[in-house]
Amino acid sequence: MKKLIPVFLAAVAALAQAPKPEATKPEVLAPYFPTPLTVVEQMLDLAKLKPGERIFDLGSGDGRIIFMAAQRFRADAVGVELDTDLVASSQAKIRQLGLTQSARIILGDILTQDYSSADVVAIYLLPDSLVKVRPILEKQLKKGTRVVAHDFGIAGWVPTKTVTIPDDGEGRSHTLMLYIR
């Protein structure tokens, strides 16, 4: 037994000095690709966003959906974004625009948030990412929550309405899909 104690202590010391594994970083579910402002407005119109309603933008990027939802539609707007630089610039713009009471950006993984308070969810994610988000939304969203998807539909869900926006000068059209849970 006495011979095992030094071996055990040496093993404990080696473990204490071993490099720690990095915390698992959240998966990037979409590249940063800003939605044109004309499309943002049509997304919010399609969702029939009303004053005081809560909207979540999953992967809020530079915050443009959040800013417009809070300013023009007087909604309670929450963005979820993984990129620290985009979060910092969005938070600064929220302060600059005087929207701190109605808009905020969460630095975090969209797959680990609580969306149960959402009236509207805005999504511009790639199809593989939508497959990952879908079960979370199905579990958390209350009946009647509107989900607006930009360009990529949610597999297995049938849109209530689909709108095609012609080329707005950037060289391509856009498709919006409205789902009501």
Describe what you observe in this structure.
The chain is an alpha/beta fold and 181 residues long. The protein has one domain: 3-Layer(aba) Sandwich (Rossmann fold). It is 33% helix and 20% strand. The chain is built from 5 helices and 7 strands, in the order ααβαβαββαβββ. It has helices at 4-17, 37-46, 64-71, 84-96, 127-140, and strands at 54-58, 76-81, 103-107, 120-123, 146-150, 161-165, 174-180. A 7-stranded mixed beta sheet has the order 3-2-1-4-5-7-6, covered by helices on one side. Helix 2 packs across helix 3 (64-71). Residues 1-16 and 18-22 have low confidence and may be disordered.
Which residue ranges are poorly predicted, with pLDDT under 50 across at least 5 consecutive positions? 1-16, 18-22
Largest beta-sheet details: 7 strands, mixed
Q: From N to C, what is the helix and strand string?
A: HHEHEHEEHEEE
CATH topology: Rossmann fold
